[in-house]
């Protein structure tokens, strides 16, 4: 194992260790070195975090490096072997002198048969030398111990000396202890790395201070804050530091050109030790989280489906309108869309939303004409629990609140009741709402798109629409022309829907007779694209190559050309062809609109105008 290094003070221990490791089937590097040489070896072997050694060598490695050291202790059998050897040499008063990490760290005296034995653990080499000299002065006649004690005894000419060897049992126990420690460290490091990785990858910045206001931990985001926020990089003790930090708690500040919200948690580790944990949350992340929660719980299906690419057209008029709408999408200003029923106002609103910077945010569509007058306020602004009889227990978010950060589309805004118009005006001015029954104001960030098929100025004149609201919503204006004013788009749209609805067409191209296409192009299409789409859907299920014009008229329920009393005209035979033609047109215009007359006579508005001159 690369995390463990065995450093033997001398070769005998190294050989024993090598044999034991081979027997255990474990690969641990074993080197022979002592004292400072051993220290240098431990430092140079960087991958090893645990060192197995003995005596003074183990002590020097522990004090001079940051390695974890496992001591080779001496087993009782090792001590008894050395004592028996000295007793056999005739010693009656024996001292066992060694480092306290080899023998038991307690001074005791006991009898071993006829021999007196004292245990003398020492702190370091100097203590060993001093201990042996004092024992020599008392007349000791046998010294057992580590290499330093034996050498000192030899220098004092103490004849009976015995080196306490580390046997197989002691070395095996040290190796097993090191393996258990390495396994524990490995698990601990893995947990720490996992935890550090998790903390580094969260969006919040975290800085931890100790009770002396020194930074003891920070994640990546926290390190960036320390670097760019001078107040949080203070490491020296500061008298008012805590007061300063708590002054920012719950406040929004700007760091790294980004708005962040600071929260502070006090962690009492012990009675006398506590940490201040600073958590910095990006305001943009908080808003994104709130939006996701809204989307998950309250905004299912509130998204825009249409894009500009989905709009079928070939007329220059529509090309200019869509170019204008594309430019409007770049703005956050309110858009007002005029257009007859069925011209595609909501599709255009959705396209503007999807081309804007709010494309990933909610799109809420509201038909003001379809909301019951008794429920319109609660639907738009929401209500709290107990606001009125029948209210939900948990309250309800209104459509404006659901559209927060996105777009709200108010269709048929001309049908909005006057009292609601005043509330809407305040929402647009203040960008704030209040739920029914609540006492709290909620700020909202919305883009408003309105649509109507009515002339709002006429409604203002009749007292049915607020003039101040009109000027608030009439910022960017688009007028969608009816199909009869962009006849170039009729057949491309008709073929598109026909192609969409015809089942099992096998990719064969669709082509209608010229009589039918001329008829469809001159048909007034009062329901505009909606009517055209419905007609194409019906025709798709009755389509065959021999479809006739009467069948198409029947599908469109077009009876303008059928003979009835209303269609009987009085013709003055005394006039010329031009006056007779003009008389016919005038009689038709008394009964039908100009568009209907053009459709019946299969002429354009320009031709009608010219013939009436």
Automatic annotation (TrEMBL):
Keywords: ATP-binding, Nucleotide-binding. Pfam families: AAA_lid_14 (PF25601), PrpR_N (PF06506), Sigma54_activat (PF00158). Residues 311-541 form the Sigma-54 factor interaction domain. The keyword ATP-binding applies. It comes from the Bacteria. The keyword Transport does not apply. InterPro entries: AAA+_ATPase, AAA_lid_NorR, P-loop_NTPase, Sig_transdc_resp-reg_PrpR_N, Sigma_54_int, Sigma_54_int_dom_ATP-bd_1, Sigma_54_int_dom_ATP-bd_2. PANTHER family: C4-DICARBOXYLATE TRANSPORT TRANSCRIPTIONAL REGULATORY PROTEIN DCTD, TRANSCRIPTIONAL REGULATORY PROTEIN. This is Transcriptional regulator with PAS, ATPase and Fis domain. It comes from Pectinatus haikarae. The lineage of its organism: Bacteria, Bacillati, Bacillota, Negativicutes, Selenomonadales.
């Amino acid at each position: 194992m690369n995390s463990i290094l065995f450093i033997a003070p001398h070769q005998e221990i190294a050989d024993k260790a090598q044999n034991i490791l081979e027997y255990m089937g474990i690969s641990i590097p074993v080197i022979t070195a002592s004292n400072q040489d051993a220290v240098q070896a431990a430092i140079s072997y960087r991958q090893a975090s645990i060192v197995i050694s003995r005596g003074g060598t183990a002590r020097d490695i522990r004090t001079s490096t940051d390695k974890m050291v496992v001591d080779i202790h001496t087993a009782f059998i090792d001590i008894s072997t050395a004592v028996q050897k000295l007793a056999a040499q005739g010693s009656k008063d024996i001292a066992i002198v060694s480092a306290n990490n080899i023998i038991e760290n307690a001074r005791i005296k006991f009898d071993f048969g006829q021999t007196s034995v004292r245990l003398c653990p020492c702190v370091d080499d100097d203590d060993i030398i001093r201990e042996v000299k004092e024992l020599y002065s008392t007349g000791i006649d046998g010294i057992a111990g580590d290499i330093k004690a034996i050498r000192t005894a030899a220098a004092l000419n103490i004849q009976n000396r015995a080196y306490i060897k580390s046997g197989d049992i002691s070395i095996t126990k040290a190796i097993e202890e090191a393996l258990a420690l390495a396994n524990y460290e490995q698990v601990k490091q893995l947990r720490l790395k996992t935890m550090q990785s998790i903390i580094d990858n969260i969006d919040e910045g975290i800085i931890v201070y100790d009770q002396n206001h020194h930074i003891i931990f920070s994640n990546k985001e926290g390190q960036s804050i320390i670097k760019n926020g001078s107040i949080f990089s203070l490491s020296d003790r500061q008298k008012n530091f805590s007061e300063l930090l708590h002054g920012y708690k719950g406040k929004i500040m700007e760091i790294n050109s980004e708005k962040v919200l600071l929260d502070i948690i006090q962690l009492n580790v012990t009675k006398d030790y506590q940490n201040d944990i600073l958590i910095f949350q990006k305001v943009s992340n908080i808003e994104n989280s709130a939006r996701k929660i809204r989307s998950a719980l309250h905004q299912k299906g509130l998204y825009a489906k249409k894009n500009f690419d989905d709009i079928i057209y070939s007329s220059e008029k529509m090309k200019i309108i869509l170019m204008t709408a594309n430019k409007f999408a770049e703005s956050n200003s309110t858009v007002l869309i005029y257009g007859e029923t069925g011209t595609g106002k909501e599709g255009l609103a959705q396209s503007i939303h999807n081309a804007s910077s709010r494309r990933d945010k909610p799109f809420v569509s509201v038909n003001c004409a379809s909301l019951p007058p008794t429920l319109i306020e609660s639907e738009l602004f929401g209500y709290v629990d107990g606001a009125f009889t029948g209210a939900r227990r948990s309250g309800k978010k209104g459509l404006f609140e659901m559209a927060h950060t996105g777009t709200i589309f108010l269709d048929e805004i001309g049908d909005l009741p006057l009292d609601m118009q005043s509330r809407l005006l305040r929402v647009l001015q203040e960008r704030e709402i209040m739920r029914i029954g609540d006492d709290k104001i909620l700020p909202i960030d919305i883009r408003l798109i309105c649509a109507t098929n009515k002339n709002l100025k006429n409604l203002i004149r009749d007292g049915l629409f607020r003039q101040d609201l009109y000027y608030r919503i009439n910022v960017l204006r688009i007028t969608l022309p009816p199909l009869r004013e962009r006849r170039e788009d009729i057949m491309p749209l008709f073929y598109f829907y026909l192609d969409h609805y015809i089942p099992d067409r096998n990719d064969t191209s669709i082509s209608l007779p010229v009589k039918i296409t001329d008829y469809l192009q001159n048909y007034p299409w009062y329901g505009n694209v909606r009517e055209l789409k419905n007609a194409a859907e019906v025709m798709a299920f009755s389509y065959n190559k021999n479809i006739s014009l009467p069948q198409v008229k029947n599908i469109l329920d077009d009876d303008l050309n059928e003979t009835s009393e209303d269609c009987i005209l009085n013709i003055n035979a005394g006039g010329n062809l031009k006056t007779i033609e003009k008389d016919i047109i005038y009689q038709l215009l008394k009964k039908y609109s100009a568009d209907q007359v053009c459709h019946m006579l299969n002429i354009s508005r320009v031709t009608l105008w010219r013939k009436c001159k």
